[in-house]
Write a structure and sequence with these properties.
The chain is of the alpha+beta class. The chain has seven helices and eight strands, in the order E-E-E-E-E-H-H-H-H-E-E-E-H-H-H. The strands form two sheets. A five-stranded mixed beta barrel has the order 1-2-3-5-4. It has a three-stranded antiparallel β-sheet with strand order 7-6-8, with no helix packed on it. The termini are far apart.
Length: 248
């Protein structure tokens, strides 16, 4: 019987049978795996709080015949503010969904693990406009995965002047002279490219007090969401819920 000891982040959980729950864990040492918490649906079980979404904990997991099973756990971070705030919860759900869909079973990535841990901590502790936070997160994520958009030069000719368009298929900013060389090049508002650069390079804590107009926020969000869909070939359901919250 293989015994695994690792720190892990709970990406999601779901009920199985009458008393158990199955957790999807992003483990620091073994990548993404699913593990059963026996009796976790019982109020007096020692596992009742072991696999709450977004929490970070140390786990001892053993490999059974069909599943992994959680044997012991010790809490590191519960992210209580996320649990109490619908907007924070929806942003954390989106973040966890992206990582869950990107990772294959047992796929390891120390950089992605630390990035997820850092991002969830920022959601829990900081007060950031959700669209700004998600745009920043998405830009940082695609860059971490090797798809960073080219923002300082025209992606076609390399010139730094008149970067008035953005193309998902070409992979970044496009100048006026090259706009017809990228079939999906879309015009940008004057400060949109500056906002994209700032969201990509700025730390999360610098986004708390930034003032961005609704038009620019929405344009950046649409550009980056479409860019992720183009390069990762994945759509994320929890993003729709956040968009609906913004329109309420």
């Amino acid at each position: 019987m293989r015994l695994l000891k690792t720190e892990a982040i709970v990406l999601k959980n779901n009920s199985i049978g009458e008393t158990d729950k199955m957790a999807t864990l992003f483990t620091k040492n073994y990548g993404k795996l699913r593990a059963v918490a026996k009796g976790a649906r019982r109020s007096k079980s020692r596992f009742v709080n072991a696999i709450r979404p977004f929490m970070v904990a140390n786990y001892v997991i053993f490999e059974g015949q069909n599943y992994y099973y959680i044997d012991q756990w010790e809490l590191i971070e519960s992210h209580k503010n996320i649990e109490k705030d619908l907007v924070k919860f929806s942003v954390a759900s989106y973040i966890s969904e992206t990582v869950n869909k990107i990772l294959e079973e047992n796929q390891k990535s120390e950089k992605l693990y630390q990035f997820l841990k850092h991002s969830l901590k920022a959601v829990d502790e900081l007060q950031i406009d959700p669209l700004i936070f998600i745009s920043s997160y998405n830009l940082k994520l695609v860059s971490l995965l090797g798809y960073m958009p080219q923002l300082d030069n025209c992606v076609v000719c390399g010139k730094r002047e008149n970067l008035k368009y953005f193309s998902n298929s070409c992979g970044g900013a496009v100048c006026i002279n090259c706009k017809n060389k990228c079939f999906d090049a879309k015009p940008l508002h004057g400060v949109t490219l500056k906002a994209i650069k700032y969201f990509l390079k700025g730390d999360y804590d610098k986004l708390q007090n930034i003032k961005v107009s609704g038009v620019i926020k929405e344009e950046v969000d649409k550009i980056i969401t479409a860019y992720m869909k183009e390069h990762l070939e994945i759509e994320f359901k929890s993003k729709d819920f956040i968009d609906n919250l913004q329109n309420m």
